[in-house]
Amino acid sequence: MSLSDPERPHFAHSSEEEFARILDYYGIEWMYEPRSFPLRWNKDGSVLEAFTPDFYLPEQDLYIELTTLRPELSTRKNRRLRMMKQLYPDVNVRLYKRGALRNLMIKYGLDQSAERIRGTRAQQRPLEQAQKNKK
Q: At the top level of CATH, which class does the domain 14-134 belong to?
């Protein structure tokens, strides 16, 4: 996929779109949220909880999850990632936390985008979304 594709995905966060720009620039094939991994089921076998990594890089057989949450707010995401690794040990997944994501953006000249995920203001949208998801 590419940002120029007619069926361009709707990204949940601007940092995901910037990450896609980096992948496009280097010609790295990617898919946005192509698969969810069930983590918990009820007695009937219905999925109660799942984890959907942000990107899949088919050439590297690698899933990428991005987070701009402050460390103290990312406990739930870290728990899901640990569960995924336990349940699906053959699936390669890598988590880019806020600091690593900022450094990556700065490295590729996306300073303005990196600034948007700095400080507490950057946390408001993901935190608000997480609160909506809990309801």
A: alpha beta
